[in-house]
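Protein modeling request. Please complete all fields; requests missing the sequence field cannot be processed.
Requester role: graduate student
Desired output: 3D structure, token encoding
Chains: 1
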Amino acid sequence: MRLGLLADTHDRVDAVAEFAARFTAAGVGMVVHAGDYCAPFSLAPIQAHHLALVGVFGRNDGDPEALRAVAMSGMGSELFDSPHSFELMGKKMLVVHDLNDALQRSIEEHDIVVHGFTHREEMKTRGGTLIVNPGEACGWLHGSPSAAILDTDTGRVEILKLSGPEWSRR
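Delivered output (170 residues):
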């Protein structure tokens, strides 16, 4: 299964819409979001592309209950407090906003860990665990919005970056 990975969207709806379109074109079946949506309207592009969403809250989500309600109105979507563990296609996954909030033991009990918070894309392995930060979908801090596509069958991660003057820091 191909998963779209997002984190730190911080209300950047145009970037979320572009990533949702790219996810759809790439055959992504679900989006995993590692928090900091900010406002409920930031979920609209994901829903417009009919993508299921599983995610956790970050530190800058202003109205978690409204975010949760909007997410649940979408296609099989749900938001949880961080960290959240679940199984998908035979893989044990952990999604957490700040990796420091996950216990070392719990990280190593998972096949895949998706996190955000640092606003920098990163891929590493710890033991048999793939740890991915798709970077900041907003592009506010580092100038280029980023996301990722993860193939759960192969473990391959593709980092997506939006570049050009229309995506530079605003």
